[in-house]
Design brief:
By secondary structure, this protein is α+β, with helices and mostly antiparallel strands. It contains 5 helices and 8 strands; from the N terminus they run βββββββαβαααα.
């Protein structure tokens, strides 16, 4: 697994990201301070893709289109066209906070075990899943990501075998990179 972190400053605002790249999925840990994300401004898709986003807001505000603002920990299963490849018919959302912390997992739709789409509402996650999210946020290691994927699998959110790919030996070409 490859991991990289970056920090961008925009005057008093900042965007810090840590990305985990794995063969089967990718994970973004995002800390935004005094910045807003609105999915309706995401570029449109050229063609449909088979990916889904498990979008967890650990701190900050989240406002699904046409719904009230929610604050604090919450998690949604977003279709690709609700996050990355927004279409005119897509349901959109806004996310912001001072600061805002998000963990977004992009994975194949076949690995998701819950209904897909913002209209399905927030997931009701057990405490141990939220503990694993916060562990990843604080430590930013593949070991903590593995723990989060285990807990999401146990909660029936993602395929239980998704976590197994995190701890497997990498192919030689990845190790050399």
């Amino acid at each position: 697994m490859l991991t990289a972190t970056s920090l961008r400053q925009f005057g008093p605002s900042s965007l810090k990201t840590t990305i985990f790249l794995e063969r089967r999925f990718r994970v973004f840990l995002v800390h935004r301070d005094r910045l807003l994300y609105h999915s309706k401004y995401a570029p449109p898709t050229k063609k449909a893709t088979p990916f889904v986003h498990v979008y967890a807001s650990l701190r900050g505000s989240f406002e699904p289109e046409g719904q009230p603002v929610f604050k604090g920990p919450q998690c949604y299963i977003l279709a690709e066209n609700e996050f990355d490849r927004v279409m005119p018919s897509s349901m959109t959302f806004r996310s912001w906070g001072d600061p805002c912390a998000i963990v977004e997992i992009r994975l194949p739709a076949a690995d998701v075990r819950m209904p897909i789409g913002l209209a399905n509402g927030r997931l009701d996650l057990p405490t141990n899943v939220w503990d694993a999210y916060h562990g990843l946020e604080q430590n930013k290691t593949p070991l903590h990501l593995h723990e989060l994927l285990l807990r999401l699998g146990e909660a029936g959110v993602v395929s239980p075998d998704l976590s197994s790919t995190v701890v497997k030996d990498e192919p030689e070409r990845f190790v050399r990179l």
